[in-house]
Amino acid sequence: MRTEEAPLDAPEQPQAEDGAEMMVCPSCEQNVPKGSLYCPFCCGEDGRRGAAKRGAFVGGVFGLLAGGLLTAVWSSAVGPEQATWGPVLSITLAAALAGMVVGAISNRKG
Questions:
Q1: Measured between alpha carbons, how far is 76 from 68 in angstroms, rounded to an integer?
Q2: Is 73 found in the same domain as 101?
Q3: Other CB atoms within 10 Å distance of the CB of residue 60
């Protein structure tokens, strides 16, 4: 029998074996305990994997920005004739990779 506070098409909240309420992780769609700070399937048991992924992403973005700025300064110093696409792309991608590594290491818990 349907109650007024539960709509007809609302999915039921899954229950764990110990009676704790569960929710579905929006990323991997696995059942996790309600109120969890992170999904143990996506971020690992202690959350380190998720922190490292976030750090690598943020570090990569800042690395790309820094690499673009460094490339602009370098190309204006050596002149546009010497600043071909190979060195420009290499400097930018190397800075992005360095930013990813630094970001992943610095944001890792523990």
A1: 12
A2: yes
A3: 20
